[in-house]
């Protein structure tokens, strides 16, 4: 008879595990390709290179995964708020004791080993949200409950933003996917999407055109409204919404030029106009697109990427790892990677819908949302569709904090799912 907490005797979803192993293996090989030098002939197992170090991270990740699978499933539910509180404490401490790396004070450094609490804060926040929403009587249509949930999400965001980690802060917006599934009123994400759309339009088009567009839109809405809804309060309300939209558009320039930091302004300018300063602020995106485009259909071949070999793309083994995939494996390789992520995300959502407890379902959707956001933004920024905000590609980008956090995030869910599938616990 299998032992109750034997990780190999539990009903782990093997399809999800295979997709995970595929991502990690391809990621390791592409980290090696990104740092490979024909002159040095370094091997996959050379611990002085990023590829060798990544292999070490993979090994330690296996230990963490076993620990997660051995722990009783009730542990994550019982101590969810404890994890959250501990991560908040680490986010505060890193502001004072952390090391400054690339302009961000968000790392604890222990010799050659670095750890970024912001990566693990996503896991803790997902657990805290699942715990809170699992309380009977919680309703996302109630203002009080929404304020509590907003507080759980916003608190780590403020601390991460204080350490100058804008990219990691934006990832917390991914929890909106889970909240919408759990009953968040539709007008809230609609307002968010409208605000994002107007922000982009205000950067691309003249303000006058946008104002005219808002007026035309309001007129069309009024004309299509049933006559009995054309009351004075409704019309005045729509007029107020129109004025608020115009005021928001008018304030975009002030926000960009006076609130955002210089490097953030530059990233937005590059997104709006990719041809701006190709040898300066636009260098990363320009070279990334050249690398991916040069791969064409089948790619140049493993370890044959010229953009990689001559270091044209900065941070190619971390934030811009997708450039290596596109250049060396072409459209086919890029399609395979995207298909892997689509398969993984689809499987997570399917499993989340099958959960018997709300805690597990909410957590599953948090996992799917976080991975989706990372994949969308990371790949999008390498092809010029998203601003460069410096977040890793899950399971592919080089780095211990990233690999550890995403693996823990995923395998906590697989542990919870194994309970549904009939795993034996005592």
From TrEMBL:
One of its GO terms (molecular function) is lipid-linked peptidoglycan transporter activity. Coiled coil: none annotated. It is a multi-pass membrane protein. Keywords: Cell shape, Membrane, Transmembrane, Transmembrane helix. It comes from the Bacteria. One of its GO terms (biological process) is cell division. The chain crosses the membrane at residues 12-35, 55-72, 79-98, 146-163, 184-203, 209-228, 235-256, 331-350, 362-389, 395-416. It is found in: Membrane. One of its GO terms (cellular component) is plasma membrane. PANTHER family: CELL CYCLE PROTEIN, PEPTIDOGLYCAN GLYCOSYLTRANSFERASE MRDB. This is Cell wall polymerase.
């Amino acid at each position: 008879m299998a032992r109750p907490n034997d990780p190999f005797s539990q009903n782990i979803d093997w399809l999800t595990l295979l997709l995970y192993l595929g991502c990690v293996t391809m990621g390791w090989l592409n980290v090696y390709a990104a740092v490979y030098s024909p002159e040095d002939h370094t091997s996959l197992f050379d611990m002085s290179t990023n590829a060798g170090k990544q292999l070490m991270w993979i090994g330690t990740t296996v230990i963490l995964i076993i620990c997660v699978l051995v722990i009783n499933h009730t542990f994550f539910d019982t101590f969810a708020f404890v994890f959250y509180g501990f991560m908040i404490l680490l986010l505060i401490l890193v502001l004072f004791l952390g090391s400054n790396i690339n302009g961000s004070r968000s790392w604890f450094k222990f010799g050659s080993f670095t750890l970024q609490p912001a990566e693990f804060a996503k896991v803790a926040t997902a657990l805290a949200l699942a715990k809170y929403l699992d309380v009977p009587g919680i309703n996302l249509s109630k203002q009080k409950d929404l304020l509590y949930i907003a507080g759980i999400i916003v608190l780590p965001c403020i601390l991460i933003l204080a350490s100058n980690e804008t990219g990691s802060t934006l990832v917390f917006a991914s929890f909106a996917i889970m909240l919408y599934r759990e009953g968040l009123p539709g007008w809230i994400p609609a307002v968010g999407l409208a605000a994002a759309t107007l922000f982009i339009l205000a950067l691309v088009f003249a303000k006058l055109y946008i104002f005219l567009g808002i007026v035309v839109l309001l007129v069309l809405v009024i004309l299509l409204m049933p006559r009995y809804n054309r009351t004075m309060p409704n019309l005045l309300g729509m007029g107020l919404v129109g004025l608020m939209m115009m005021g928001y558009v008018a304030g975009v320039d002030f926000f960009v030029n006076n609130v955002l930091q210089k490097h953030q302004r530059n990233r937005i300018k590059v997104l709006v106009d990719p041809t701006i300063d190709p040898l300066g602020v636009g260098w990363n995106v320009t070279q990334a697109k050249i690398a991916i485009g040069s791969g064409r259909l089948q790619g140049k071949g493993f370890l044959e990427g010229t953009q990689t070999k001559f270091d044209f793309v900065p941070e190619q083994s971390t934030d811009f790892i997708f450039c290596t995939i596109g250049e060396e494996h072409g459209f086919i390789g890029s399609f395979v990677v995207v298909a892997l992520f689509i398969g993984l995300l689809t499987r997570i959502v399917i499993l989340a819908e099958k959960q018997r407890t709300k805690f597990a379902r909410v957590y599953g959707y948090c996992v799917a949302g976080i991975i989706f956001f990372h994949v969308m933004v990371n790949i999008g920024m390498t092809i010029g569709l998203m601003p460069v905000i410096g977040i890793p590609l899950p399971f592919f980008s080089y780095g211990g904090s990233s690999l550890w956090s995403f693996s823990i995030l995923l395998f906590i869910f697989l542990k919870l799912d194994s309970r549904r599938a009939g795993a034996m616990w005592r």
